[in-house]
């Protein structure tokens, strides 16, 4: 029996009460779905700034009979009183609520600070005062900034390259401060490039995988910034769900409060584009000849990123369940069945 299966059995035998912030978002809705599937009691908090009601509906629809164990609160983590109400009688907090996107953070750094830092501190305070057993929060590989080392190891960080990266670094510092000053236990998970079902393809700042899927299905051009040899550690969302659950429940090694979450591999944007195009072409043959358009590098983009997952493997028993290719098959199959209700699909590729 692997570690996650053992944890799942324990949870089913003795359910807990969880708060998932950002519950209507991409990752948050997957956490809600998995926890409800394990018979947990879940409180979801979201302001729908980037989340969707359809994500909640889909999560509940995949966990029949779970609606009585789920309570949703619509609100903003910048509201301190709301954070306190949401944390009442909660055992564990999985804090996903934040603004993502490096380019958007460069456009509006103050908004990112208010949501990702001020909101984060509101949640830390509320969770501590409510007596939450552990606070697990989403950090980011953007914390590594301009540090050139590969793979990325938790102790070795550079200077942030965007306001987004700075906010996530500040979150980690605040979490450490709360541990040393108040004795409040938290775990930060540095997500690498997460992808999977329900990731929004229609957002102005959509992540690269849903953006390219949408463009290819609509017969539009896909853009690659730079020469396409920029590389990332693309991590399927089920791996991230596993990391959150293990971080909440597994004993922590002394001094280890930050963990990378990835698969420990790198894929270039050229390779990623080919995988998406070729996968979709099996369903839409007219896509097979589509070629990307190359543009200038964007400010704030890191050239290469790859997670060293030794620490999370050794400390928490984490083991990725999906490689890029495994996750891509599931992701493209989901978009093939859902894209019509998300964005219009072209009938032919130019």
Description:
By secondary structure, the chain is of the alpha/beta class. The chain folds into two domains: 3-192 and 234-262 and 310-321, 3-Layer(aba) Sandwich (Rossmann fold); 193-233 and 263-309 and 322-350, UDP-galactose 4-epimerase, domain 1 (Alpha-Beta Complex). 43% of the residues lie in helices and 15% in strands. It is built from twelve helices and 13 strands. It has a seven-stranded parallel β-sheet with strand order 3-2-1-4-5-6-11, sandwiched between helices. The longest helix is centred in the middle third of the chain and has 22 residues, at 109-130. The termini are far apart. Mean pLDDT is 93; it is low at 344-350.
Briefly summarize what is shown.
It contains twelve helices and 13 strands.
Number of helices: 12
Question: Percentage of helical residues?
Answer: 40-55%
Q: Could you tell me the strand content as a percent range?
A: 15-25%
Q: Please tell me how large the radius of gyration is.
A: 20 Å
**How much is the average pLDDT?**
93
Shape: globular
CATH architecture of the largest domain: 3-Layer(aba) Sandwich
CATH superfamily of the largest domain: NAD(P)-binding Rossmann-like Domain
Order of helices and strands: HEHEHEHEHHEHEEHEEEHEEHEHH
Please report the first level of CATH classification, the CATH class of the largest domain: Alpha Beta
CATH fold name of the largest domain: Rossmann fold
Largest sheet: 7 strands, parallel
Number of strands: 13
Characterize the quaternary organization of these chains.
Answer: single chain
Distance between the termini: 50 Å
- SSE class: alpha/beta
Note poorly predicted spans.
344-350
Number of domains: 2
């Amino acid at each position: 029996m692997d570690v996650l299966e053992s944890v799942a059995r324990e949870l089913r035998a003795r359910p807990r009460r969880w708060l998932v912030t950002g519950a209507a978002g991409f990752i948050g809705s997957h956490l809600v779905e998995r926890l409800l599937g394990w018979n947990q009691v879940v409180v979801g908090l979201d302001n729908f700034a980037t989340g969707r009601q359809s994500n909640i509906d889909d999560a509940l629809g995949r966990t029949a009979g779970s609606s009585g164990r789920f309570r949703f609160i619509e609100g903003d983590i910048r509201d301190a009183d709301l954070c306190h109400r949401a944390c009442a009688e909660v055992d564990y907090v999985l804090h996903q609520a934040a603004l993502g996107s490096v380019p958007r953070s460069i456009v509006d750094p103050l908004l990112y600070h208010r949501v990702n830092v001020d909101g984060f501190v509101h949640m830390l305070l509320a969770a501590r005062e409510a007596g939450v057993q552990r606070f697990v929060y989403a950090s980011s590989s953007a914390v590594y900034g301009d540090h050139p080392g590969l793979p990325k190891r938790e102790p070795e960080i550079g200077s942030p390259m965007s306001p987004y990266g700075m906010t996530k670094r500040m979150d980690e510092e605040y979490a450490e401060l709360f541990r040393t000053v108040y004795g409040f236990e938290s775990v930060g998970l540095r997500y690498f490039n997460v992808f999977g079902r329900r990731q929004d393809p229609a957002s102005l700042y959509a992540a690269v995988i849903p953006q390219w899927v949408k463009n290819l299905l609509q017969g539009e051009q896909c853009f690659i910034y730079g020469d396409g040899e920029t590389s990332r550690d693309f991590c399927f969302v089920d791996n991230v769900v596993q990391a959150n659950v293990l971080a909440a429940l597994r004993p922590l090694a002394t001094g280890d409060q930050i963990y990378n979450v990835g698969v420990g591999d790198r894929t270039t944007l050229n390779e990623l584009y080919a995988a998406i195009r070729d996968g979709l072409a099996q369903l839409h043959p007219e896509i097979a000849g589509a070629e990307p358009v190359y543009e200038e590098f964007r400010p704030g983009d890191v050239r290469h990123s790859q997670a060293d997952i030794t620490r999370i493997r050794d400390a928490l028993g984490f083991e990725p369940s999906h490689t890029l290719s495994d996750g891509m098959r599931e992701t493209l199959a989901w978009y093939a069945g859902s894209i019509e209700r998300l964005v219009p699909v072209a009938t032919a590729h130019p």
